[in-house]
Amino acid sequence: MEQEPSLDVDQLLRELGQLSQQYQTIVAPFQAQIKDLEIARDDATASLRFQMETIEALLRPVIIAAQETRKIPYLTAIYQRRDKWDRDILFNIAKEVPAVLTAYEDASFVQFRKTAH
Q1: At residue 104, what are phi and psi to the nearest 5 degrees?
Q2: 9, pLDDT greater than 60
Q3: pTM over 0.90, yes/no
Q4: Whole-angstrom Cα distance, residue 23 to residue 95?
Q5: What is the pLDDT of residues 22-74, one digit of tens each?
Q6: What share of the chain is helix, strand, coil (3-state, %, to 5)?
Q7: DSSP readout, 56-69?
């Protein structure tokens, strides 16, 4: 039975860092143009965005109270019901009733974020 070659994590991270640096060098001028366009867009739409955000703030509690999604041309106000649990309380309960931990699952993951340096 053949053994898988072990990964040199540090070497792979260094290689990934070098590729990230190359990527950022290529992307930088495009990002600058995008930023300029975003600033121009934000300046052109500031008044509209303020009016829209004001109306959204008025509508939000009404939509929540009605518990229904509403759809009109150019807009859908989506009602989403979500539960919110206090993790600390649940973990304290789990200390007393260990069976509660059967509902727990580790959701660890790795995220790669590009940095400037």
Answers
A1: -90, 140
A2: yes
A3: no
A4: 48
A5: 999 999 999 999 999 999 999 999 999 999 999 999 999 999 999 999 988 88
A6: 65, 5, 30
A7: HHHHHHHHHHHT--
Domains of the chain, residue spans: 9-103
Contact 112, 16 (CB under 8 A): yes
CA distances from 64 to 56, 78, 81 (A): 12, 9, 9
The per-residue pLDDT for range 53-65, each reduced to its tens digit, is: 999 999 999 999 9
DSSP 8-state code for residue 109? -
User: From CA 55, how far away is CA 61, in angstroms rounded?
Assistant: 11
- Residue in the structure block whose two tokens are 């060098």: 25
Q: State how beta strands 75-77 and 70-72 pair.
A: antiparallel
Please report, as a single letter, which amino acid is at residue 109: F
CA pair distance 55, 47, nearest whole angstrom: 13
